[in-house]
Write a structure and sequence with these properties.
- There is one protein chain.
- This protein is an alpha/beta fold.
- The protein has 2 domains: about 1-285, Rossmann fold, CATH 3.40.50.1820; about 295-370, Immunoglobulin-like.
- It is built from 8 helices and 19 strands.
- It has helices spanning about 1-5, 55-60, 65-70, 100-110, 125-140, 155-160, 190-200, 270-275; strands at about 10-20, 25-30, 40-45, 75, 115-125, 145-150, 170-175, 210, 225-230, 240-245, 280, 285, 295-300, 305-310, 320-325, 330-335, 340-345, 350-360, 360-370.
- It has a 10-stranded mixed beta sheet with strand order 1-2-4-3-5-6-7-10-9-8, with helices on both faces. Strands 16-15-18-19 form a 4-stranded antiparallel beta sheet, with no helix packed on it.
- A hairpin with a 2-residue loop joins β1 (about 10-20) and β2 (about 25-30).
Length: about 375
């Protein structure tokens, strides 16, 4: 454990093992650069496709870079025989119990590392994307949000999806996917059906926001349209990234895949994290001044060990001061770049005011530590 702690300062990949259903199973844990037990980290499961494995998915998705820059723990489990029981097999509760396997990993991570159980997420590629949808239905009490890349929800999973809470969902899929048909097939939903399913489950209303991503890479044979349902129950959202001409690929993957074009106008791993970080098991994170393009954001709020200050307009270092409810200075420092993590685990619980100075102007926001 000491060696792991020292190595983690540079961001490391550690292979761990556990027994589940009398089978020894493995998974790779990527601890972000600068990992510290003083901070409770979000966890993102990233599930490989059929025929692949955890280490290959780690390299292919490049999510270890996203974990390092955004300070979360990324986990890359290995399916039995390089596959997941993602809802195609009958009966629905057949073995292997991959849902139970993921749940047991969460328990192990909670005992071994410092994680935030309210911010555990799941995403995956292809077969792993199908499995992410199953986790949303079968492990919704532990998975805060899910994302699927080149996967969908199976008909059997949809029939057995009895949710106890609303689950935010992001779907990324290319129209030229030769393996998981954009228009669906026997056993799984089309993209329109998949999105409609989650729009219904999350009780979304109104017209979605639709934006076209600039075609910054004219050589990738694809373009991206983002469709976002933001008016959903309990603060959830449903997002769909329609990749026109995109193949059976992860956007901005580490290598080009043989099954169609890889879109490089967006980074799939970063887009997924930008979606995940909006939600916890208890609902959306505290977002202040929502709706303003350059709004300052604090998450999570209430906070425990740390909170993250984000502002799209931050381009230089800005000083901040944190005051308690009596107006006493609790700590100060500097915000650097668009995202800064502030450790507050040493401070007493209560209400604080974060004051940020930018030239002659100052902005003050309430932060709750619990």
């Amino acid at each position: 454990m000491l060696l792991s702690s020292l190595l983690a300062q540079a961001g490391v990949d550690i292979t761990l093992y556990l027994q589940h259903e009398s089978v020894t199973r493995s998974y790779v844990v990527h601890l972000p650069d600068g990992y510290s037990n003083a901070i409770s980290y979000p966890v993102v499961f990233n599930l490989h496709g059929l025929g692949s494995d955890g280490p290959q998915q780690l390299f292919y998705s490049q999510m270890y870079n996203t974990a390092d820059s955004n300070k979360f723990i990324a986990v890359f489990p290995n399916g039995i025989s390089n596959s997941w029981n993602s809802g195609f097999q009958m009966p629905y509760n057949s073995t292997p119990d991959d849902v139970g396997f993921i749940s047991k990993i969460i328990d192990t991570l909670n005992a071994k590392y410092s994680i935030d159980l309210n911010r555990v997420y799941a995403c995956g590629m292809s077969n792993g994307g199908f499995q992410s949808h199953r986790l949303a239905c079968d492990l919704e009490n532990r998975i805060a949000a899910i994302a699927s890349v080149t996967g969908s929800i199976t008909t059997l999973t949809a029939l057995n999806c009895n949710l106890s809470r609303k689950v935010p969902m992001l779907q990324i899929h290319g129209t030229a996917d030769p393996l998981v048909d954009y228009n669906g097939a026997t056993g799984y939903y089309s993209m329109a059906q998949c999105v409609s399913f989650w729009v219904g489950k999350d009780q979304c209303t109104g017209t979605p926001d639709t934006t076209y991503v600039p075609d910054t890479n004219i050589n990738d044979s694809s373009t991206v349209m983002k469709i976002k349902y933001k008016n959903c129950a309990d603060g959830t959202e449903v997002w769909f990234y329609h990749i026109e001409g995109g193949g059976h690929t992860w956007p901005n993957a580490g290598i080009d895949y043989i099954y169609g074009p890889t879109n490089r106008d967006i980074d799939g791993s970063q887009e997924i994290w930008d979606f995940f970080k909006k939600f916890t098991l208890q609902g959306p994170v505290g977002i202040l001044q929502a709706g303003e393009q350059n709004a300052l954001r604090i998450s999570p709020n209430p906070a425990k060990d740390f909170f993250v200050v984000e502002h799209p307009a931050f381009a230089e270092t800005m000083p901040f001061s944190l005051y308690d409810a009596l107006g006493r200075l609790a700590m100060d420092g500097k915000l650097t770049g668009v995202s800064t993590t502030i450790a507050v685990g040493h401070l007493p619980k209560g209400i604080y005011v974060l004051q940020i100075s930018a030239g002659e102007s100052r902005q003050s926001l309430k932060v709750i530590l619990q």
